[in-house]
Amino acid sequence: MNVHDKYKPLTFWERTYLPRVWDGLVLTMRHFFCNLWHFLLASLGIPRAWKGAVTYQYPEVRRPLWPRLRTLHRLTKRDDGTPRCVACMMCETVCPAKCIYIVAGERPEKQIEKYPVQFDIDLGKCVFCGYCVEACPEDAIRMDTGILEFSAYGRNGMLLTKEMLLSFEPKKGHYVARPDLETAPTAAPKLAEA
User: Fold this and answer.
1) Cα dihedral sign for 106, 108, 113, 119?
2) What is the pLDDT of residue 62?
3) What are phi and psi of 57, to 5 degrees?
4) Residue 194's pLDDT is what?
5) What is the value of pTM for the model shown?
6) What SS3 string covers the chain?
7) Distance CA 15, CA 9 (A)
8) Residue 70, phi then psi, degrees to nearest 5
9) Per-residue model confidence (pLDDT) at position 184
10) Which of 145, 116, 117, 124 is nearest to 133 (CA)?
């Protein structure tokens, strides 16, 4: 379509929209009967590469998730069960929605100076951009719980506290296995000195 074509007056048939409605019906029916035909052949046991349209019977059957999908947040723990977070405020600073609230406290150990006394995430504001995961230097926050369904009756119910974030565990069974991503990266070859 030329840019100037949209300024042309519509014909009688274009004003009725019937040709476009008919085109949409033909396209929908073509997909419907094509999927139905392949599904019937697969149901009769005729081997086919494509089994037709697949519908997941949610919530009894969950759709497999890709490993890169960002789901509900969780805080990782050290070996002693304390949060790995050192309250550096990087995630709170980089968050575009300003949904992370951290109150830092001092630890008696010299190796780790601070820890989060309070670590809250307001899911009502979160846009699931994943910047908090990327910015964390301690790998303390992840979005791999596999939890996609969450709701609340009020705004206070959408607030995740530190204890809730520490209680979540990654559910690898919800994700599609990707052995190519689980292998350790190979070291880059050294460049020959010139």
Assistant:
1) negative
2) 80
3) -85, 70
4) 42
5) 0.66
6) CCHHHHHCCCCHHHHHCHHHHHHHHHHHHHHHHHHHHHHHHHHCCCCCCCCCCCCCCCCCCCCCECCCCCCCCEECECCCCCECCCCCCHHHHHCCCCCEEEEEEECCCCCCCEEEEEEEEECCCCCCCCHHHHHCCCCCEECCCCCCCCCCCCHHHHEECHHHHHHCCCCHHHECCCHHHHCCCCCCCCCCCC
7) 9
8) -90, 115
9) 55
10) 145
Find where tokens 């689980």 sit: 182
Say how far apart CA 129 and CA 113 lie, in whole Å. 29
CA-based nearest residue to 103, from 90, 124, 87? 87
**Structure confidence at residue 71 (pLDDT):** 92
Long-range contacts of 51-58 (CB under 8 A, 24+ apart): none
Residue 42 phi, psi dihedral angles, 5° rounding: -70, -35
For the chain, how big is the Rg over CA atoms in Å?
Answer: 26
Q: What distance in Å separates the CA atoms of residue 146 and residue 172, rounded to the nearest whole number?
A: 8
Q: How far apart are CA 7 and CA 95, in angstroms?
A: 45
Residues listed for the chain:
194
Per run of 10 residues, the mean pLDDT along the chain (length 194 residues) is: 73 91 97 89 82 77 83 93 93 96 89 91 95 95 90 92 93 71 57 49
Whole-angstrom distance, CA of residue 66 vs CA of residue 184: 19
